[in-house]
């Protein structure tokens, strides 16, 4: 699966199709294009639940320019908020807003999009979903509906011990022949 272009959503689940419509009608990915946007999280890999948002990771080199773009294009959206914070020892800009019933979160770091944890976790999770089948997918959804975050749900279902975010990343090397390239 090539997660770098969102066209795959057009042929996906009804929620994926709705996400595609919102992202394209409002030119969200187009506005973010200079920042290598990638849709990540639960919707692309079909483990979303009712309140799942659309997560987009971006790579900025000039933080103030990135913030200005977010303000320019999205500050008029319902519930718009922007924060400048530290996440995993990385300066991070996070913008949240609503469009057509979807909560959208844009997460930007001075780190290439494909190297950010959200993307890396998603491709590992996608492999497990493909290899373990629909019952596993349903188990993940059920755990999420019980309040588990995505990575802890996978760790629980897979019997992984320790920090679920780090444990999932250990599979990158083992799965490298099966995962999309980071390049």
From TrEMBL:
Organism expressing this protein natively: Rufibacter hautae
Superkingdom, natural source: Bacteria
Protein name per the record: DUF4269 domain-containing protein
InterPro entries attached to this UniProt entry: DUF4269
